[in-house]
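To close the chapter, one final illustration. This time we ask the reader to focus less on the individual chains and more on the assembly as a whole: which components sit near each other, and how the overall shape emerges from the parts.
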Amino acid sequence: MPDPELSASGEFGFIDWVRRQPAADARVLVGPGDDTAVVAWPAGADCLVTTDMLLEGSCFLLAEAGPRRVGRKAMAVNLSDIAAMAGRPHFAVVSVGLPRRGGRALAEELYRGLRECAEAFGVAVIGGDTNSWDGPLTISVTLLGSPTGRGPVLRRGARPGDWIMATGDFGGSILGKHLDFMPRVQEALTLHGLVELHAMIDVSDGLAQDLYHLCRESGCGAVLRAESIPIAAAAHASSDNQSPLDHALGDGEDFELLFAVTPEDGRRLLAEQPLGSVRLSHLGEFVDRGVWLESAGQRQELPPRGYVHRLE
Amino acid sequence: MPDPELSASGEFGFIDWVRRQPAADARVLVGPGDDTAVVAWPAGADCLVTTDMLLEGSCFLLAEAGPRRVGRKAMAVNLSDIAAMAGRPHFAVVSVGLPRRGGRALAEELYRGLRECAEAFGVAVIGGDTNSWDGPLTISVTLLGSPTGRGPVLRRGARPGDWIMATGDFGGSILGKHLDFMPRVQEALTLHGLVELHAMIDVSDGLAQDLYHLCRESGCGAVLRAESIPIAAAAHASSDNQSPLDHALGDGEDFELLFAVTPEDGRRLLAEQPLGSVRLSHLGEFVDRGVWLESAGQRQELPPRGYVHRLE
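The assembled structure is written out below.
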């Protein structure tokens, strides 16, 4: 589509704005503004790559959250994936589809939220693709990181007898935590330095659902003890007909770490609480097969509830 | 949002489908299905990173193009950016927002197109994020590559006196080439091996617009000779009131390489035509300042026409 002028309010204006942001980072050899970014990769390090897309109306309500918090969330969900590998985040690229009307102001706030979150975790935003369209806001972030010398922690690796442990608490994230959660990057690195993490995942789909993922990848089962699940205050605040436990099991977007360690390491972590204000809990054990919820000594099968994107 | 069942037609069904695709690749240590992908990075190599988002109704018409060609294009536009750095593509991640109704069949065709294009260029699709929503189809691909031992070719580096050269021809891409173009990855590597490429860009916004980008980054000007511009047959086929030359200058999405070399190297490339059926042309010269179109010996200022995303 031919267009005779370079509008200050068009894409190039926005890219200029991005390029004017402070970004002195010796790792970034070529930043935004060329055909690709060029970054120096740590010698000998493998590359962790994750991508997440947020869609207005599905993943957030723009009017409620505001663009700055949406930008923050778009970065933070990717950081949470790097945390789940016990990795270090390095570089991000950002693609956005902006509604045409109000898109410039929206873009600046969105980008501010992205950048603030990136900087807090030492991540350089090295490029992106800015588009306008007649659809709702859509934003996709890809984040590159590297594992530590101890290697990445996968979803597979949990063994029957291992403890199920988690950071923080669960349920009711829709009341605010789904936007303002703190990705557990530093916490994962600390844990990885202290003990052998057999398997780990960040809880995005829901505690029950993500426990299923760990079990499926590890080829084992699990027993969650209802009384041991740390339930967030927000899980009690809902006025629907679900119990706080149901919220904790199924709400999702808690972005806490769920992981497997030996009972010995688990006892040590529980006693030492090495993450300070981020509380570690012992939720149950991995077993040979099945996924169970145990309450007052009674086991019942745990349905893998949680958020599933439906396609028809 | 709690959901009591893992539907075979939901997100996990699609991820399973992706994971069943053949992907034996020794560089991919952990593929789709964990919190991040893990890839072995070539020792000592810098990392090229590019991302592009395609939006239904803005970047393509789904009913006209079909999902397989849209998937192909989403990969190919990123390959074209790696080509513009004379780099080698390695790994891709893909985020999609799928319309809820018909999304499963759409996703499979989209993914097939992505995968076919990736495989043709030795790219491993290592992960992604699949979402459904009530909006139109949106797809974002991030591609990682590495420069050759000669380093990446940037937009800056053109010098007054350099020749302006290009692969292929220009204009009328909307009639089909914008979907079916061949990313000039191999061509760029061949050129980079033969001569010193001072600066390079892939023509996505439009020949005039992208020449402006080269000039701006290089701090110089350029003179395009109208009679030397290779005009595509498709640029003659339009029934609007623009001339074929106007189409060649402004249409965009040609995805040809536009680059700067010394006159000596230019003459050599023009004589040798090392790219076989992909014709190299000499379009003009870089100069001190201004961007000009010369026709029958007369110079006029060339407006930087081309596609600009407008924001309000």
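Chain B touches chain A through 99 residues (CB under 8 Å). Chain B has two domains: 11-147, 163-301. With these observations in hand, you are ready for the problems at the end of the chapter.
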